[in-house]
Write a structure and sequence with these properties.
The protein is mainly beta. It is 4% helix and 45% strand. The chain folds into 2 domains: 279 residues, 6 Propeller (Neuraminidase), CATH 2.120.10.80; 77 residues, Immunoglobulin-like (Sandwich), CATH 2.60.40.
Length: 388
Amino acid sequence: MRIILLLALTLIASELYAQSPQWERRADFESFGRHRAVAVTVGTKVYCGTGHLNGLPPDERYKDWWQYDPASNTWMQKADYPGAPGAFPDGGDQDLTGISIGNFAYVGMGQMGPTEHYRYDPVTNTWTQLNPAPTTGFNNTFPFVIGNYAYYPRRSTNNLYRYDPSNDTWTLMGPTPFTTGWGNVTFVAGGNGYFKQATSLWEYKASTDSWTSRAPYPGSTPYRPVAFEQNGYGVVVGGYASFYDPGNEVWRYDPLTNSWTQLGDFPGNGRRWAVAANIDNRVFYGLGTNGTNFEDWWEFDMYMGVHEFDESAFNVYPNIATDYVNFEYDNNPNFEISIFDQMGRLVRTEKTNNGKIKLNRNHEQSGIYFYHLAINGESVHSDRFIFQ
């Protein structure tokens, strides 16, 4: 009877995963499940560790540090995180910040060591203690990287700090138009930073140190999800509305049109305090909790199972146009082009079944226009052109 039950559960799980082609399960995290961990990417590897385990007091915090190699789909333990050595049971921390710039990861400022800051070198597998953060309040917030700088919002304030790893210094930037709350998330798309807090979304332009309010997040689980960038879009996964009932919704934000689109749900358990990391356009997601701590590890591809777009087979010309723009795709005769103005408003949509669209200017004004290429109803490519 037990064998039959296990087989039935396996078939049900397989069917569930088959209905979510954008997600593929990878090798589980090598250590035990946890939440409030941190994950960063350096080169072609993901580094993940620290965090917290649910249970009775005293709270347990962890220092173990692991490398995930997607080429071999394997985990390898590395040198422990050295911060907060007095934490129970044997040192470690939770709610750390983590970013990578160049060949290093920068990790620290957790709940137990709120100003400690370390640089991790994957080549030598060593940690170096850096200057302390200028103040406390960075734990349980999410920094973002633009160029060679990292930007850190400070909780319960409207402070934004810029960190320069080249000289290990911190600079207080202009005030944010919001107070940073608990459990925000960030991502970078199109060279700009995005800060999501509950349902609000703000765009940050580093060149002008300025913020702009963007389309609010429409998901039903707005608190403590995970956010990342893929293919020029922001993606938000999971989170909760009720603390003990986290969800598994997936939403995609388009910075060109300032709009949100709901994608297929994450096929695993809904969760809060998960982690995610990018290797170029490959995204890895896992850990977290819904009361049970998870060690599962997944790869996400918004185009998986939709259409493998070959950019070399797609042509747009002239890119600076006077009267018309041609769109041609050699690999699929059936596609759709949607045109948007600089305000994100839909101008028009054109379809074809012969692999070619000639977009006449009609009465469109001079300026920059954005387009989305969609195949079978799914956006697979975005870019821009100019009408002189």
